[in-house]
Amino acid sequence: MRDITTRPSEAQEKDAYPAIGLYIDGKWIYDREVWKTVRNPSTENEIGTVPKATAADLELALKSSERGFRIWRDTPPSERVRVIRKAVLLLRERIKQIAKILTLENGKTLASAEAEIDRCCNFYEWEAGQALRAFGLLVPSEARMQKLLLRQPIGPVIALTPWNVPMSAAARKTSAALAAGCSVILKPAVETPGTACALVKCFEDAGLPPGVLNLVLGDSAQISSTLIASPVTRLVTFTGSTEVGKHLTELAARAMKPVLMELGGNAPVIIGPGVDVDHVAKLSAEAKTRANGLICASASRFIVHESVYRPFVDAFATAIGNYQVGDGFDPTSQMGPLANARRMSVAGAMIADATSRGARIATGGNRIGNRGYFFEPTVLADVPLDADAMTVEPFNPIAACVSVPDLDSALNVANSVHVGLAGYAFTNSLADAETIQRELEVGVLSINHFGTPDADMPFGGVKDSGIGREGGPSSLDPYLIQKAVLQYTGRV
Whole-prediction pTM value? Predict the structure, then answer.
């Protein structure tokens, strides 16, 4: 495992990082109390500060969103699409600039950051097309009676996004909400506010009317409780942990508001007999280190048929053990640091728990260096089913491997957790593939690859992994209400 090499200087870090502000009613606000500092996870250097929205700021954001909604709701879909497409053009032009911001505050490699931003442009383009296809219905009826089913924007939306995919999550939510005709109050994670500010700047420069997109930062508890309780807002959409998602859902239920929740996962990878072990191992190494292992759809529990278990574990450990871990700006790095000190602590504790129960470290398991949150990608073998690595979402580059005698056993292990977001399977049996499609309890399933849905396919989970779907043919549905209109057309 290679140690860290090149890093930008501390002065270069600060020069490349933007000033962080609130964006309310078309204006940037910077002169507020400092709530948190932003640190580069590769160096632990402070690169920026996060302002804290006051109660007055939140009230202004609510009033602004209410006004913005009325403007945007009544804007013809073709004009909404024109503004969204102009913002996407600016986003594409600024990919390299914004990717540097994302890498500075999140740590993922620059190539991964650029890919995340480029992929997000697909979300906006898809939803812009959806805006032109959000038709109502004319229902056949008796003479002198007209029955209409209108689809109208639900109202101002609260969008709460995480630090692990700061552009992807924000784009998923704002693209659908804006395309549907809703206004949005965006609250990004305080660890990664720069990416969100850069995104909002694209819409500001594209001519989005003031109030249609607001950005607030600060005390998460204060912001969520204030915005959700307000009668102005009509929908809560959140990506993050199951625990926080349940809390926000309770707050929304008290206010009689629908929610769209994309929550945690613990993705199983079922590997059947007769597969090309070396090929699957290389794919698994790439999947496990994607986004530094810090994504909810990350391959986590490798449930392997006993006939290929030992050779797979050996090949997997060799492949992932050769990965280059380093600063995201180093072009030779294949994986960056963990996002913060807490993820380092959780990774160490998870490995200690597994080994205390009898698991074997096939590779990795240690911090790299003494500065920055660098951690070796790790393969654990022979992991007991009650170990944290098998039952708790890892959210780090730790892969837990277990041997099973048959597909039924593999499915029992895979379905034994309370979450069900993404799942993966590798098999050369069409019959087994069909069984896995029916019986694996996940919202997203990829067979013989580790891809996840783009804009044209729905993304979301079952069980404790959330409520609703983002993307796909029904992507605008959560942001639209149905209004039944019955009109008598005779004289009165």
Answer: 0.94
Is 44 a catalytic site residue? no
- The answer on pLDDT for 433 being more than 70 is yes
> Among residues 105, 127, 262, 393, which one is catalytic?
262
At 5 the pLDDT is 43
CATH 3.40.605.10 fits 10-263+466-483, yes or no: yes
Looking at residue 6, its pLDDT comes to 54
pLDDT at 230 over 60: yes
Strand order across the beta sheet in which 145-153 lies:
137-139, 145-153, 480-488
Q: Catalytic residue among 182, 296, 376, 470, which? A: 296
SS3 state at 445: strand
8 Å CB contact between 260 and 159: no
In angstroms, the CA 231 to CA 356 distance is 51
Q: What pLDDT shows up at residue 4?
A: 42
C-alpha torsion 309→313→315→318, nearest 10: -170
End-to-end, the C-alpha distance of the chain in Å comes to 83
Q: Locate the domains of the chain by residue range.
A: 10-263+466-483, 267-454
296 is catalytic: yes
pLDDT cut 70: percent of the chain above it:
98
Domain 267-454 has CATH 3.40.309.10: yes
Rounded CA-CA distance 179/157 in Å is 12
Q: Which two tokens stand for residue 338?
A: 């963990």
Distance CA 486, CA 464 (A): 39
CA atoms within 13 A on the CB side of 206: 24
At residue 7, does pLDDT exceed 70? no
